[in-house]
Amino acid sequence: MFEARLVQGALLKKVLESIKDLLNEATWECAATGISLQAMDSSHVSLVALNLRSDGFDKYRCDRNVSLGMNLTNMAKIMKCASNDDVITIKAQDDADTVTFVFETPNQEKISDYEMKLMNLDTEHLGIPDTDYSCIVKMPSVEFQRICRDLSQIGDSVVISCTKEGVKFSAAGDLGTGNVKLAQNANVDKEEEAVVIEMQEPVSLTFACRYLNSFTKATPLAPQVQLSMSSDVPLVVEYKLEDMGYVRYYLAPKIED
Amino acid sequence: STTQGRLDGFFKVL
């Protein structure tokens, strides 16, 4: 039997919104330690890895590991039926071919349940190597979203260049060019407004705007985003979920011809 | 110009 109850059900709605652009279907791996999901998009350019720790749920029971393969478009349809202040419970029997979502209003006066068919997905699990990154940038997630949105008006790609002084985002296209520079700025009133750069050596990498914009669907999940970069390895864009886990995206850089 | 790289090869299939 698997059962996970989240009083802050809106969080689950936001997690789904943050991945459904990139993935049509994925397997939620449920274990005693929590729920995880790892999947590449169909073109194998980006990878989503997320983890929701069991202790972040208000009730969590997982007698044995279960893999819940879901069509995420269908899951999103069901999640839209939950209000933002609903308590959400996910339930599945061992070896079941369906999953049940229960939505309760805070006053318990309305309880809805939706049963969804599971899919048998041929999921291959990937080992993600530990990497010492040349540059790690922490910045406000809304700022990153804004920059990705603005520069995608200019071109298809964004060059992210990081030095000790700051980080620069650049785009070029038929209409001209755009550059956004952010200086390191740790002395701010609110921690979430800080721009912090940990640099071993400067890097400059090119990434597709389309994917970066998809990643920023996770913005409502965290006030800060962390970008980890090294030459010729995938960019990691991480949103930490408070007391719960993370949503991470990996993106292969564009290569100079 | 640039071409989009892929993730295959960066991660090992377990």
How would you characterize this protein structure?
The complex is a heterodimer of chains A (257) and B (14). Chain A has 257 residues and is mainly β. Chain A contains four helices and 20 strands. In chain A, helix 1 (10-19) runs antiparallel to helix 2. The termini of chain A are far apart. Chain B has no helices and two strands. The radius of gyration of chain B is 10 Å and the shape is rod-shaped. Strand 10 (126-127) of chain A pairs antiparallel with strand 2 of chain B.
Radius of gyration of chain B: 10 Å
Through-space gap between termini of chain B: 34 Å
Mean pLDDT of chain A: 96
Measured as a percent range, the helix fraction of chain B is under 10%
- The averaged pLDDT of chain B comes out at 86
Give the DSSP E fraction of chain A (strand runs of 2 or more residues).
over 45%
Detail the poorly predicted runs of chain B: none
The gross shape of chain A turns out to be elongated
How many helices of chain B? The count is 0
Quick synopsis:
The complex is a heterodimer of chains A (257) and B (14). Chain A is mainly β. Helix content of chain A is 14%, strand content 47%.
Key terms:
heterodimer; A: 257 residues; mainly beta; nine-stranded antiparallel beta sheet; five-stranded antiparallel beta sheet; elongated; B: 14 residues; 0% helix; rod-shaped
SSE arrangement:
The complex is a heterodimer of chains A (257) and B (14).
Chain A: E1 2-6, H1 10-19, E2 25-31, E3 34-40, E4 46-53, E5 59-62, E6 66-71, H2 72-79, E7 87-92, E8 98-104, E9 111-117, E10 126-127, E11 135-140, H3 141-151, E12 157-162, E13 166-173, E14 176-183, E15 196-199, E16 203-208, H4 209-215, E17 224-229, E18 235-241, E19 245-251, E20 254-256
Antiparallel strand pairs in A: 1-5, 1-7, 2-3, 2-6, 3-4, 4-19, 7-8, 8-9, 11-15, 11-17, 12-13, 12-16, 13-14, 17-18, 18-19
Chain B: E1 2-4, E2 12-13
